[in-house]
Write a structure and sequence with these properties.
With about 120 residues, the chain is of the alpha+beta class. The protein has a domain at about 40-115: Beta Barrel (OB fold (Dihydrolipoamide Acetyltransferase, E2P)). Helix content is about 15%, strand content about 45%. It contains 1 helix and 6 strands, in the order H-E-E-E-E-E-E. The chain has one helix at about 5-25; strands at about 40-55, 60-65, 65-80, 85, 95-105, 110-115. It has a 5-stranded mixed barrel with strand order 1-2-3-6-5. The termini are far apart.
Length: about 120
């Protein structure tokens, strides 16, 4: 004979769910993101180029009173007024709109750099 006591079965189910959540290492994934891939956050910044370091593959962008240095990767896309360009085309003082990709635990990188006319 099996007797179910509602209060106890709920407590057991809640305990098991909490244990499963605590031992699961996978992060939630979103559309366009593979399971297990860390979540990326994209944000747009408008500013001017403060510095270019082609050896370290970084660009420093000044926006308002703040200057930040971002990593350039092989996936970074460069355009000038919408036309294809490269990092070699970037000059200090040039107005830009950039898309920055942030992933927890990794340096922020430039996903897109669109150089504007002065």
């Amino acid at each position: 004979m099996c007797v179910l006591i509602p209060g106890i079965s709920i407590a057991i189910m809640a305990c098991c769910d909490a244990q499963n959540a605590a031992t699961s290492n996978s992060q939630p994934h979103f559309a366009g993101q593979a399971p297990g891939e860390k979540q990326a956050i994209l944000r747009q910044i408008k500013g001017t180029v403060g510095a270019i370091d082609s050896k370290r593959k970084t660009l420093t962008i000044k926006s308002g009173e703040r200057e930040r240095t971002f990593k350039v990767t092989s996936k970074s896309k460069f355009t000038r007024n919408g036309a294809p360009a490269s990092m070699k085309d970037v000059v200090a003082g040039q107005p830009v709109e950039v898309i920055v990709k942030s992933v927890y635990g990794q340096p922020d990188e430039l996903a897109e750099v669109n150089m504007k006319s002065k």
